[in-house]
Prior knowledge:
- By secondary structure, this protein is of the alpha/beta class.
- The chain has a single domain (30-259, 267-324), classed as 4-Layer Sandwich (Nitrilase/N-carbamoyl-D-aminoacid amidohydrolase), CATH 3.60.110.
- The chain contains five helices and 14 strands.
- The protein has helices at 2-28, 67-90, 127-141, 243-246, 249-258; strands at residues 33-41, 91-93, 99-101, 108-114, 148-158, 163-172, 178-183, 198-199, 224-228, 234-241, 273-278, 295-298, 306-307, 320-324.
- Strands 1, 4, 5, 6, 7, 8 and 14 form a seven-stranded mixed sheet that branches. The protein has a five-stranded mixed sheet with strand order 9-10-11-12-13. Strands 2-3 form a two-stranded antiparallel sheet.
- The longest helix is centred in the first third of the chain and has 27 residues, at 2-28.
Amino acid sequence: MNNFIKITEDSKLRQKLSEKFQQKISLINQPIYIREIAVFCKHSNSTKSLLFGEAQLSSYCYNKTPEEKRLVDYIDLLANIANNVHQHFNYAQNGLRQYQIKKERLNDITRISTHEFALYTSKPFTFKKFNNLVKEIEKSAKLYCENVHMLLSSFAVVNKAKQVLNTCLYVECGKIPIIHSFTKVRPSHIDFQYKNTDHFDQTNESKEFTAIPKTENIVSHDSVFEFTTLGGARCIQCVDICLDYILKHSKQISTKVINAPGLSPTAILPLQMNHLVTSNTLGRLHWRGRISDCIFVVDPRLTSIATPRPLKPERTNFLLNIKFPAGYN
């Protein structure tokens, strides 16, 4: 009799744990919707020099304000634009005339992205100055809604060996912002190059990985990471910088993550995966580096900036092509 009671209790416990586990899986794999905003220079189709931020501008219209200050303000403007779009689609007034996110939109992301080299400055950042910039971006990101994301592509960061790292930041806004930093693995011979510098090439280096590069000996190329929505849904985000897509960089990393031998048997990997490509001269999109069914490409030279598959008839990707004058005005 006692054994029967114990078996019954164990069975109920297993059933309860199983139900909780299934609830957790359902929460993690709720459908995520991403509205994309792509930002280009106003005359990017006709003037090659405008495809590299302010790195090639021969004269400046904004000399009164330091370049780094204008860059911070420009990034804040991008965040503000994305935030306004996000609130327009996903928020509504309550009885107190306060704006709150709609319950059915807790897993909606609004993402604003720039193309490769778009944030290059007249001189590359040192590691110290770049980390100061990251801190300023973090302060700005705290002011905006959760589920507002930014792909800031890309910054020039120089090390003591005069090698320039082509570096991107992926920013998740909110009260506690999350910033992912990663560097292009393989430079192209047609990439922009500052005078008296070389391109940083991971194939010639042996470096450790970290989230934010704090020293010149620690450089991150880990462009595959997870994000979690306000509603608890999770997604594996993959980002490739131009040539890295052709070389299947993020595809290789994501495959290693999924097939990791040390992965815990109880670990839950999200089923949803998103692929984002930032480039400057990618040309025709090759499919060999594709990871997910939907790839969003930000490239000023491509006639088509996206190859999205509609997620649902009533809620497809929102594609907004914003164009600014040259410089971080």
